[in-house]
Amino acid sequence: MPVTFKHDDPDEAKAQIVGITENWQPGSLDLHCHTRHQLMYSIKGVMNVVTPSGRWVLPPSRAIWISGGVQHAFIAKRPVDLHALYIDPVMADLPKWEDCVVVNVTPLVRELVASTVALPWDYPANSPAGRLTRVLLEQLVDLPQAPVNLPEPEDPRAKRAVAMLRADPTTRYSLQELASASAASARTLERIFHADTGMSFSEWRHRLRLLMALELLADDVSVNSVASAVGYSNPSSFIAAFRSLFGMTPGNYFRHNGR
């Protein structure tokens, strides 16, 4: 079921930063782009953002910056409530971010985003509303980035291996087995992953499993069940892997930053 917007084109708004609140049912929005930068914040649920170069997982308490002109698509596997801001690229003091960047949202930024989406789309720059949005920009610059991106390989052989891993993250296929099924040698497939994603094959599969785990954890699936669902032999090894990437345990991840 495709996702549809219920609002006028934010690229045509008079105000420099405008916002909307959306409730998405499971579905997708095909590749498209905006002239303005976007900042999207998931209030509830998990959204996948896909570009030609990678995939980002957006869980609650995290926001994604999508630079103006970047082609992107959205996938929501379960219902999602979100805020979306559209930011004029000619504004001063914008974050120096390119492509897509996911950041950890502080309680202050969360409230600033919520206030901004409630503003009319024609407020003057020199007004209380305009000053509020400039405070938001100042806060964005210092937000820490979150490691929830997954670069996508471009080579068709690697894409076949990726499809197999996404279809069943619990699979124990070795690199050699995946390479044979993808019409490549293990050495060639490893080289492709390094060249296309900047990661080894094992690093890429490790991150894929943990990002898939984020989606399940956001729906309050137990840690034990999540560990099994994404291919870990026991909860302890899953928790250790999760901590190594995100810097905290699964139990603390969604409580962080005020959730």
TrEMBL record:
A Pfam match: AraC_binding
Residue span(s) of domain HTH araC/xylS-type: 159-256
Family matches, as InterPro entries: AraC-bd, Homeodomain-like_sf, HTH_AraC, HTH_AraC-typ_CS, RmlC_Cupin_sf, Tscrpt_reg_AraC-type_HTH
Keyword Transferase: no
Keywords: Activator, DNA-binding, Transcription, Transcription regulation
Cited CDD domains: cupin_NimR-like_N
Protein name per its UniProtKB record: Helix-turn-helix transcriptional regulator
Protein source organism: Pseudomonas benzopyrenica
